Amino acid sequence: EAGVVQSPRYKIIEKKQPVAFWCNPISGHNTLYWYLQNLGQGPELLIRYENEEAVDDSQLPKDRFSAERLKGVDSTLKIQPAELGDSAVYLCASSLGRIAGDNTQYFGPGTRLTVL
Amino acid sequence: GNSVTQMEGPVTLSEEAFLTINCTYTATGYPSLFWYVQYPGEGLQLLLKATKADDKGSNKGFEATYRKETTSFHLEKGSVQVSDSAVYFCALEGYSTLTFGKGTMLLVSP
Fold first, then answer.
1. Cis-peptide, bond into residue B31, ω within 30° of zero
2. CB within 8 Å of chain A, chain B residues 30-69
3. Contact B44 A107 (CB under 8 A)
4. Do the beta carbons of residue B35 and residue B47 sit within 8 Å?
5. I need a labelling partner for A78 at 20 to 30 A (CA). Which of A11, B65, B77, B93 fits?
6. pLDDT digits (tens, 9 = 90+) for A5-60
């Protein structure tokens, strides 16, 4: 079974430019998460989707970050405009979900963003 | 709120040594507990989990026991290998959200 797929794996952009990350969760997983991981730190949740609904976006900086999960499968996370402090690894994870009785999260390889 | 505290690294061991990485947590209710491992340049891989008190999670020779009385979930392995060198994250799940510790780097030398 394929795991969580993310692209691109690496992205280098100039500050003030836009950038987008894509995630394809494990087939059948209803819950999708985006995390931010700074160097030397554990991941921190940005947003959680249950199917196509964003049920927890309290930590998403909405002035520059946006996300969508159309049709409840793939998801895109966007930053516009990017700032130097956005340099980090962006991780996507998925789980079957609470209704299925299993919230175990499985992570993709991440996208390493460098803002110059 | 929920929080996880891990021992600081790096932990440096010789091959075949015994490993312990300490993890304690603060949480409301009865969270599920996890250990994830991250190899250089990769995402997090689920190593093991425990969903209730006294449960023991195990995988690939690693073990951790959910201790409610000491709010701990220490990771152990009897004989580490060079290939175990990675960063290990302890995490708890509350309200469908994972709270992670800062991670502990393990370096195993031949």
1. no
2. 32, 34, 36, 42-46, 49
3. yes
4. yes
5. B93
6. 999 999 999 999 999 999 999 999 999 999 999 998 999 999 999 999 999 999 99
B2 burial class (0-12, 13-18, 19+ CB within 10 angstroms)?
middle
What HEC string does A59-110 produce?
CCCCCCEEEECHHHCCEEEEECCCCHHHCEEEEEEEECECCCCECCCEECCC
- The DSSP bridge partners found for residue A7 are A22
- pLDDT of amino acid B85: 97
Compare CB distances from B98 to A98, A105, A108 and report the shortest one's residue. A105
Helix (H, G, I), strand (E, B) or coil at A115: strand
Query: Residue A43 and residue B44: Cβ atoms within 8 Å?
Result: yes
CB contact under 8 A, A42 and B49: no
B88 touches chain A (CB under 8 A): no
Residues B51-103 have pLDDT tens digits of 999 999 999 999 999 999 999 999 999 999 999 999 999 999 987 889 999 99
Q: What is the mean pLDDT of chain A?
A: 94
* CA gap A103, A56 in Å, rounded: 15
Helix or strand holding residue A9 (H, E): none
Q: Among residues A7, A44, A10, A35, which one has the least CA distance to residue A113?
A: A10
